[in-house]
Write a structure and sequence with these properties.
Tetracycline Repressor, domain 2, globular, mainly alpha
Length: 240
């Protein structure tokens, strides 16, 4: 096989500058406590003129699209890696994935807000573009647990069996993405599971549970994850 040609000096320089622009934007977000960012501020920190940035990103929205895509991919990698310790234990993998989601939000509060918080004012994500694809990759870490449990015949009936016809339509529409047809009630339970996990994580990330001691928050999160699994029909961990 012929080895792929290595990047030229110019390509390496361009890639390094793009990385510097993105890193500077994230640093500014962390410093300001906001996910909004301006080219003028990035250029000032980097010691260049604002027009110089347009050689790398067409506008602020293109930069935000790149940052959002990177964040979703990083979240997906972090959650995916969490299941390595118990690859054959779906219950344990759910607990590990939930904890990884929470840990990532703690470690990356600005990026968490960027992808799963309030929309950035004026930003419009491209339809069916890189952000949508990256979001699907990240959230597939949760849906894959339901799909694997279904294949292994360990996916139990969810607590709530009634499903509105409009939700059934959504379930059928997503069958191709999941590469399997989840029962409508399990599809609904999967969305409930993500909503409950994200809800707790958001409350904690934005300081609404700071009145609790860290150990109490850990215990409450653990019981929340167990409750979600039982209500959704996910299998229990295979503990000795």
């Amino acid at each position: 096989m012929t080895a792929a040609p290595s990047a030229t000096r110019r390509e390496r320089t361009r890639a390094a500058t793009i990385d510097e622009i993105k890193a500077t934007a994230l640093d500014l977000m962390r410093g300001a406590g906001t996910v909004d960012v301006r080219f003028t501020d990035i250029a000032r920190v980097m010691g260049v003129t604002p027009p110089a940035l347009y050689r790398y990103f067409a506008d602020r929205d293109e930069l935000l699209t790149a940052l959002i895509t990177d964040a979703y991919d990083d979240l997906a990698r972090h959650v995916a890696a969490s299941g390595a310790a118990a690859p054959d234990d779906l219950g344990a993998r759910w607990e590990a994935a939930a904890q990884a989601y929470r840990e990532w939000a703690h470690r990356e509060p600005e990026r968490f807000a960027l992808i799963l918080g309030l929309p950035v004012p004026g930003y419009v994500a491209p339809e069916e573009g890189p952000t949508s694809e990256a979001a699907s990759r990240a959230l597939s870490q949760l849906s894959s647990l339901f799909v694997e449990a279904l294949h292994a015949d360990t996916l139990g009936a969810p607590y709530l069996r009634e499903v509105d016809p409009t939700v059934e339509v959504c379930a059928h529409g997503k069958s191709e993405d999941l590469e399997v047809t989840l029962p409508a009630e399990s599809f609904q339970a999967m969305l409930h599971a993500w909503a409950a996990l994200h809800g707790f994580t958001s409350l904690e990330a934005y300081g609404h549970l700071d009145w609790m001691e860290p150990a109490a928050r850990d215990a409450l999160f653990g019981s929340q994850v167990t409750l979600i699994a039982r209500v959704a029909g996910l299998p229990e961990p295979l503990r000795a």
